[in-house]
Structures are given as C-alpha cells and as structure tokens.
TrEMBL record:
Keywords: DNA-binding, Phosphoprotein. Residues 1-113 form the Response regulatory domain. The keyword Phosphoprotein applies. The modification 4-aspartylphosphate is found at residue 49. InterPro entries: CheY-like_superfamily, OmpR/PhoB-type_DNA-bd, Sig_transdc_resp-reg_receiver, WalR-like, WH-like_DNA-bd_sf. This is Response regulator transcription factor. Residues 125-222 form the OmpR/PhoB-type domain. Residues 125-222 bind DNA.
Length: 222
C-alpha cells in the first residue's frame, strides 16, 4: 500500500492504522518519491493526497495507473466540490475528503481492494496467548479471562508485540521501531509511556497487573 501525503502527522496516523489492518505501508511525501517507490515495490493500492509540494495527486494517479492498470487508486483531499470529486472518480476508485475518520479510510480502502482483488483471501491465523490473555489475529480483538478488552489499533499493536516477546523486557527504542515505525525519535518522547498506561488501565480492569516496567530500559509482561 503506497500512501502519498506530505503532512507527516497525517501520514503517520494513516500508516499506523493501515499496518494494524495488516497492510504493508510505504510512505512518500512528493510525486517524485511516489513514482520511485511505486517503480521499486509495485504496490496493489495507492492512497493519494491531491495537493502535493511538487505536483498534482490526480496527475500522479494517472501516471501510476498508466504504469499499472490494475492498481487501486483512492484520493484523499480537502477539496470537496462536485467537479473535483467527479473528475477524480473518472479514473480513480474512491475519493475521501479531509477531515476524515481513520476507520472510514481503512474500510473504504478495504472495500476497493475487495472489488479489485476478489480472488484474494486472507489466511486464518492462530491466536496469540499469554496467561489469561488471548489476541485473535484474524479479527484483531483481545480478551482477558474470556472478557473483551476494547483496544485501539495502536494499543493492540503494542500489546501484540509484548505478547510475542513473552516475559522478556522490551527496550523502549525497540517498541518505537516496531510499533510506531520510528527510526529516530527525540529522547523526550513519551508516546510509549502514554500507551503503556492506557494498556495497564484496560487490562487491570479485568485482572491483576501484568505489564512490568524496568526503569530506564523498557516494558514486558509478568
């Protein structure tokens, strides 16, 4: 999945949500970067911002579609006039306006791919278990002692990584790389601590504490 968005905060939100739903995501901020990425990786779908620093996302969509006719195209933009929408849908598969609901974006991309990739069926995946905790890798749901744990996509991704590492302490830097896909994060960032506190509150509502902290190192499961 190629995401072309020049606003880093929006690109990050889209990437986290799409990766949670098992998309392989590549991000480009310009037309030039997008064309180079598409040439190297040949994505099945592209989510394109219409207004880019070095060109028009619709022209980029036409170029990508010319190179690969079966590529699914979804446009994302603040422009919402009927003429803009009709023009984009003349060769694209869907059109989403900003501000957007991230769940709607994922649902509409999934629907587009369902229409264009009808033969693709995702395989069943066995659940992940740790103590009385179970993560369903098919529905992306979590249960503790048989009761549902309501998690956001990021919370689920963080908990899944901790479960996969069993009782080991996972360094904060490793969590940032694998859950948030950050390679370089300011040392004062508190995103991991914030989401660990969210997980603790939700898990401890259903049972004893299970997330441990190794001060100055990272986090793990008891």
């Amino acid at each position: 999945m190629l995401v072309v968005e020049d606003e880093p905060s929006i690109a990050d939100v889209l990437a986290i949500a799409l990766r949670y739903h098992r998309f392989e995501v590549m991000i480009a901020g310009t037309v030039r970067e997008a064309l180079a990425l598409a040439e190297r990786t040949r994505p099945d779908a592209a989510l394109l911002d219409v207004m880019l620093p070095d060109g028009d996302g619709r022209a980029l969509g036409r170029e990508l579609r010319a190179r690969r006719p079966d590529l699914a195209l979804v446009f994302l933009t603040a422009r919402d006039s009927p003429a803009e929408i009709v023009g984009a849908l003349g060769f694209g598969d869907d059109y989403i306006t900003k501000p957007f609901n991230i769940d709607e974006v994922v649902a509409r991309i999934t629907a587009v791919l369902r229409r264009t990739r009808t033969a693709d069926v995702l395989p069943q995946r066995p659940p992940l278990r740790y103590g009385d905790l179970e993560l369903d890798e098919t529905t992306y749901s979590a249960h503790r002692a048989g009761r549902t744990v309501e998690l956001t996509p990021t919370e689920y991704a963080l908990l899944r990584f901790l479960v996969r590492n069993g009782g080991r302490i996972v360094p904060k830097e490793q969590l940032l790389r694998h859950v948030w896909q950050y390679e370089h994060t300011p040392p004062e960032s508190t995103v991991v601590e914030t989401y660990i506190s969210y997980l603790r509150r939700k898990l401890e509502a259903l049972g004893p504490p299970m997330i441990t902290t190794r001060r100055g190192v990272g986090y793990g499961l008891a």
